[in-house]
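Re-run requested by the PI after the first attempt was lost when the workstation crashed. Everything re-entered from the original request form. Ligand of interest: inosine 5'-triphosphate.
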Amino acid sequence: MTVFRPTRLLIATTNAGKVREIRGILGDLPITLATLADHAELPEPEETGSTFAANARIKALAYAAGTGEVTVAEDSGLEIDALDGEPGVRSARFNGESYVEKFATIARLLAERGATTSTARFVCALAMTLPDGRLWETTGTVEGRLQLPARGDAGFGYDPIFYYPDYDRTLAELTDQEKAAVSHRGQAFRRLRDYLSQ
Ligand code: ITT
């Protein structure tokens, strides 16, 4: 198998929380990590896919085409079983401007179904462009359940309502290192790190 060892990698996300977590996982590799801050002129591609993997591919290919850089993108989100997997790929755009409003929407939708909590998971699909135009892809998943009302102020997004039983805390009550050790993004990016280190 041909080993692929880029010296520079574009972390193609507009989400500062993702950037921080990804830097924490890939930061010790001998690779310069560029971000979209280095390419402020680029338009955001439309995430038209119906799966996390499809949207990760769309982002990786679009930013690679726009920059000529070896590019890693990921698409992630929260799947709530009692809501048939919602908000899923729509997690970033889900009903409500703020996360406080999004959490209230989730509580209301659960109540409409006679529930106060639900099993849930975060999913992360990662895609990296390869020099021959193909993509290297992987995924990560973390299982937990909803915690309403929200708890904790670390992390980002839905972390305050995602309870992780093994830690007996929400992801927003963890340090970045504790979260990365178990999270969907931690799993996917550690697989990428292993691939880049072999
Ligand atoms: P990019 O597309 O630019 O990467 P984004 O935030 O729009 O940024 P996504 O389309 O992949 O990214 O949406 C992911 C959303 O899923 C994110 O905005 C959060 O609402 C949620 N999410 C994903 N991972 C999360 C995590 O680790 N903790 C909390 N919420 C998370």
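Saved to the shared folder this time. Residues 8-197 form a domain with the Maf protein fold (CATH 3.90.950.10).
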